[in-house]
Amino acid sequence: AALIAFGRQTKCTIIAEGVETEAELATLRELGVYAAQGFHLGRPVAVDSLKRLLREEKAREPPGVTPRARS
To answer: Which of 24, 30, 33 is nearest to 4 (CA)?
Structure first.
């Protein structure tokens, strides 16, 4: 919690790394941390696979929809 407070005081974006369980993610949310990465949220993928996934996701969007801003 102290590191999160420090990050907020210095106006840094807090990104949790290594989230592997739902319990860890729930704790982070309780602490107000909403940006995270880790195996619980998704396995690493190769760049070419990521590009393909993003193209496929974009193709599924209805016309006129703009991507959500990420914080």
So the answer is: 33
* Cα distance between residue 12 and residue 49, in whole Å: 30
pTM for the model stands at: 0.64
Q: How far is the CA of 70 from the CAs of 1, 2, 13, 35, 36, in angstroms?
A: 23, 24, 12, 9, 12
Measure Cα distances from 41 to 6, 10, 18, 25, 64 in Å.
Answer: 25, 27, 10, 9, 28
Tens-place pLDDT, residues 2-60: 999 999 999 999 999 999 999 999 999 999 999 999 999 998 899 999 999 999 998 98
